[in-house]
Design goal:
With about 325 residues, this protein is mostly helical. The chain contains twelve helices and no strands. Helix 1 crosses helix 2, helix 4 crosses helix 5 and helix 7 packs antiparallel against helix 11. It is globular, with a radius of gyration of 23 Å. The N terminus is likely disordered.
């Protein structure tokens, strides 16, 4: 019996060591792949004017939705095989941030021109890679077009509310969640591309929906961080829709103070945090049968930890402030 116990402990330890070594090997291979991507991006950017902004100058990508994070769901594919997709995600991620800056009109005229040209250059390079991977009649392009349409429709709808073309009374919670998901709908491209490369679409529905739920939660997280900026720019959000009755809002000190009190002491921020956590729970449930899925750890669980930590901090601060007022 003692031998069996010792043997079991040894086997468990060996299993943990093997898992650790495997994780370290994957991490090292991924880092090496990232280094190759940066080198390739430098080569691509050399084809353009020095003022064109490529990822090496504007460091952003859809890091939470890279194809490498979903690789565990497609065991027939290797990190080397998806290298071109990782380059595409880097290019598209950066280009969409530049595009958002233009749409939000947050840049000066020269920066807007610079970013618009950079956006076009990066998209051209990304399309060149995608066309080398997928035939024009493949399912990938149908999905990619639908994701792009979702993104465009969400941006237009949001701008209609911001401009006053649509009354704020029509900005429902259902619409807010849909816009939140679709504003980053292109993040689903990694899944669509991997499915096409693997030749197996059995996970299309579940993975796409899981990513959508995470996108909603991410948008809620961003809305919490940027609610004052959104208020000033007239950009609607689920959080603001719970405390603002109509646009435009005069953002003076008194209004901001009243809205802050409503958001934090009226339970509204707790409501949207809970809504985000429910989305993340659905994302985890949809991917529970895919072991060692890096995306679940890097994107879903990480955001869940941040949301719950924020909720605890808010509760502590509000309780402390209420106590001090009662003294």
């Amino acid at each position: 019996m003692q031998f069996k116990i010792i043997n079991s402990v040894v086997m468990t330890a060996n299993s943990k060591n093997q898992k650790y070594l495997t994780e370290q090997m994957i991490l090292r291979e991924t880092q090496e792949e990232f280094a190759k991507i940066e080198e390739e991006l430098r080569g691509l950017s050399d084809n353009w004017h020095e003022y064109i902004v490529f990822p090496r100058d504007f460091d952003f990508s859809l890091t939470g939705y890279g194809p490498d994070l979903f690789l565990a769901a497609f065991p027939s594919l290797s990190l080397t095989e998806i290298h071109p997709l990782m380059v595409v995600v880097k290019l598209f991620g950066t280009s969409m941030v530049l595009c958002d800056g233009i749409i939000d009109r947050t840049n000066e005229a020269w920066m807007t021109t610079k970013y618009a040209l950079s956006f076009q250059a990066m998209q051209l390079e990304a399309y060149s890679i995608l066309y080398s991977l997928f035939p024009a009649n493949s399912q990938f392009w149908e999905l990619f077009r639908s994701y792009y349409r979702e993104y465009v429709d969400a941006c237009i709808t949001e701008q209609k509310f911001a401009s006053g073309e649509l009354p704020f009374s029509e900005y429902t919670e259902t619409l807010a969640l849909e816009i939140g998901a679709n504003k980053s709908a292109l993040a689903k491209t990694s899944v669509a591309a991997l499915i096409e490369l693997a030749g197996d679409d059995s996970l299309l529905a579940s993975l796409s929906e899981a990513v959508k739920q995470d996108l909603i939660a991410c948008q809620i997280w961003d809305d919490i961080q940027d609610w004052k900026e959104d208020l000033q720019s007239g950009t609607p959000s689920l959080l603001l829709s719970r405390v603002v009755e109509e646009w435009p809002v005069k953002c003076d000190e008194r209004v901001l103070k009243n809205l802050t009190r409503k958001i934090f002491y009226g339970g509204h921020i707790n409501y949207v945090i809970e809504a985000a956590c429910q989305c993340l729970d659905r994302a985890k449930e949809l991917t529970k049968d895919i072991p060692q899925l890096a995306w679940r750890t890097v994107a879903v669980e990480k955001l869940e930890t941040e949301l719950k930590s924020l909720s605890i901090d808010i509760a502590k601060i509000c309780h402390k402030n209420i106590e001090s007022l009662q003294k």
